[in-house]
Amino acid sequence: MKLICLTFLVSLSLMVNAQNNFKATQIKFERVEKAYNEKWETLRKFVLAGGYGDRFSMVINAYKTEGKLEIWLKNNSAKTYSLFRTYDFCAHSGTIGPKVIEGDGQTPEGFYYINVFNPMSNFHLSLGVNYPNAVDYARTGKNRKPGSDIYIHGNCVTVGCIPLTDEKIKEVYILGVEARNAGQEKIPVNFYPFKMTDTNMKKYIAQFPTQASFWKSLQPGYLAFEKNKNQANVSEAKGKYIVK
Fold it and tell me: 57: domain CATH number?
């Protein structure tokens, strides 16, 4: 029994050290270090004033039509998220409707998570999302390429990504580093065509009727977050999102 407890404590210690080492590794890169030097002191004051503490989790909601990227945070001991910051896109690509195939210039729509922190991006700093997922592959179909390399990044140019100014991506990036360092393995990134209220659904489905079925599969995730202020349990099955 003592051996089991000791093994558990050693494993826990290694996990904590691995999490803390994420920030230490990132901050070795010049751009990340500079972002921390320029932004973190002020940003941390707002984080603490918001009650999020030094260990928080993060959700990103992005709305293509509105051109807004929302950062939601919660203290790791809290149950719900609250809105921390809203950033404007500084460029747009494509139109509303999901990305279908490589080269179509579309920004994806769906439920994703950050899977890349790139401190040496060609677009200053960038956060990659796990596009394409199973739903995207099903939409694109066999023998066609859905595209890849979708990021939230700086530099104000885009072909399918979400661009912010360099100053804004510095803040988003280090907030992501802090959340990851505090133990959040997967930071949700939800790409919506618009704020998916019933009024907006009616308006935009009238303009883009071929997207009706897909958008109706996204709306429950949007509504669940609006109601509960927490990320919905979303799974992918048979080419569709299932929200529970």
Answer: 2.40.440.10
